[in-house]
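Hi R.,

Here's the chain you asked about this morning:
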Amino acid sequence: MNTRVKRLALPLGAAAVTALVGSSLTAPAQAAGDTSSDPLATTGIAAYNIAAYWFAEESANLINASPYETQVSAKHISTGGPAPDSKPGVVPAIGDEKKSSSKSKNVNLPRTTGKVFFLGADGKPHWCTATSVQSHYHNLVATAGHCVYDTDSNKTTFDKWVFVPGYYQGKTPWGVYVGKQAFTHYDFDVYEDGDRDYAFVTVYNGLKAPHDGIQKDNWDTVGTWKEVDKATYDKYDPYVRTDRDVLDLDKDGNKNEASGGHYYVFTFADAGRLGDNVGGQGLAYNQKIGKKVFVFGYPSGSHPDGNHAFSGKTLKWSYGKTFAAKAPAVKAEELVGVKSSFTGEGSSGSAWLLNYKNTRRLGYLNGVTSGVADTDGNKRIDTSVSPYFDGETYGVYKAASNVWSGSIA
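And the predicted structure, written out as tokens:
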């Protein structure tokens, strides 16, 4: 796949939308069929093999992944505009369920944000930005829809999808969380509607290797192996399995030929639930346009003028007021924008956080970056855009937030 950023020319304008952030959860009525879902890893063994792919060879696939750059091309336009479809509402962040919201201009970086990795249609590893959000089982990730669904080739979902919070140069401090099931708006899944370019993904408990990304040749010296029968052994990826000949060495390092016929699978450690480890942002929807948000993401690549502003290696932030935006190039009419110099490579899925708290590093997710634009034609990116989070967004979130995933260790 020839991934690229489509530089959007946005007609931008202020919107007078009279909706305030609420202090309690308001659940709007949902039209039937708003939510679509697709499996990412249907069995524990499949998920285990996916994690092994990213851990293998000193995390080479994580380290060598490139930022995903594609902007979705919409084929359908939802009715309405960037305005609330019912009363405003919020879902509190993990740990803030009984706390009141407060305003903040804090720039402390959240632990909830990280990178999602997957195989693109080109068969190569790519990444976007994503963040952990509140859910019943503390197992939910939010990102851009085009970081889950392959809108270029019309394939349902990307392969080997994982979330790594706090990722840095091959390090996985809180483990690797394999995606189990993806949820998006029906209009995005079916029509690739740019106004609905968001996704919520349930993830299994995280996995940790004894050392983050160790060589298979050394696994028998630093980890543990579980003996399984041949049928089970055959279901696992070669990255994490071996026969007795590899392990059964005598004191001089020679094979003990007398004890063949045993099969082993490497055992990763269970890192626990995502939200228990890094927390989870709340969710805000039907909010007033013009409120200030922090945008946290991993931008990478150059501006159109060639200035290489971001490396994609560390988490960055920008801050500004939201405003109404449209993107005719992708037939998106219900977007919100914010002034930001984030370049398009890697910033897809960046978290837009409303009322970000000073000490807890938590707030309300109120958008995810779906595209970037140079609005004044000076060849420098100056704007990020997101779908407007309304009651239908809440409906997709709600469907995902009550789905259990569990452990695959």
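Residues 166 and 173 are 7 Å apart (CA to CA).

Let me know if you need anything else.
M.
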